[in-house]
UniProtKB/TrEMBL annotation:
Protein origin, superkingdom: Bacteria
Keywords: Chaperone
Coiled-coil regions listed: none
Protein's name in the database: Molecular chaperone TorD
Any single Pfam family the record assigns to this protein: Nitrate_red_del
Record has Chaperone as a keyword: yes
InterPro entries hit by this protein: DMSO/NO3_reduct_chaperone (IPR020945), TorD-like_sf (IPR036411), TorD/DmsD_chaperones (IPR050289)
SUPFAM superfamilies hit by this protein: TorD-like
Source species: Eggerthella guodeyinii
Length: 238
């Protein structure tokens, strides 16, 4: 199964996956961005700071936030509007987004959405009594949703550990391994490439690096490494 993580390390990783989920899935708004800037949310992370991509991604987002002037309300609002338009262009798109966040886009024939990948991910959610809000109008295999699901599984593992149920905790860790291996890691580098090519701000270029680095670092728990030359994830040991 890989390395055994304690509650503290799991809590740190889970918080990072939850933040990564919000970065991709939630449209930026003035209050959230102001909070990120005032609290220096991306100055560091509780997990993954030993990963170069995580550090580079955090630095990109933090640097962009430092250029904001929250006291100049019109200027601040315009900068956030620019960020919102970039988020829409990258991840939503009037037609095809510049950096689509759906597993199906990268793995299904002709980038067909709502195919086998979507249904498999939906089944993973359903096993835990979860269902996305816009079922059948939005693919379940959106990267933001899937990162949020990993955070959910990590929280469930923490609950099992705190309840003394080692068997359940082991099963939940194994489920995280399988979900990442089957649905997130195979296309993550391709998605990151699109973000890196098409992002116009350090904020979203940084978000892309943070997501790839976070998944790379957490995958090490399960004996999975990232081959820089081939830009693919590989299991190095079980």
């Amino acid at each position: 199964m890989g390395a055994s993580y304690g509650v503290q390390e799991l809590s740190a990783a889970g918080a990072c996956f939850a933040e990564a989920s919000r970065l991709l899935y939630c449209e930026p708004d003035n209050d959230e961005v102001a909070q990120q800037a005032s609290e220096h949310v991306f100055a560091s992370a509780p997990f993954g700071m030993d990963n170069e991509r995580v550090r580079r991604g955090l630095n990109g987002m933090d640097t962009w936030l430092e250029t904001l002037n929250a006291s100049d309300e019109p200027s601040f609002a315009e900068r956030v509007d620019e960020l919102r338009r970039e988020w829409l262009r990258l991840f939503i798109g009037a037609g095809t987004p510049d950096a689509p966040c759906w597993e199906s886009f990268y793995r299904e024939p002709n980038s067909h959405l709502f195919g086998a990948c979507t249904l498999e991910v939906r089944a993973c959610y359903k096993r835990h009594g979860l269902q996305i809000e816009r079922l059948r109008s939005e693919p379940d295999d959106h990267l933001g949703l899937m990162l949020g699901f990993v955070s959910f599984l990590i929280s469930a593992e923490i609950d099992a550990l705190q309840a003394g149920d080692e068997e359940a905790a082991t099963g939940l860790a194994s489920e995280q391994d399988g979900f990442l291996t089957e649905h997130v890691l195979p296309w993550l580098a391709a998605w990151h490439y699109e973000v890196d090519q098409h992002a116009s701000s350090d904020y979203f270029r940084g978000a892309g690096s943070f997501v790839l680095g976070l998944c790379e670092r957490y995958a090490q728990r399960f004996g999975i490494g990232f081959d820089e030359e081939k830009q693919v994830f590989k299991r190095t040991h079980s």
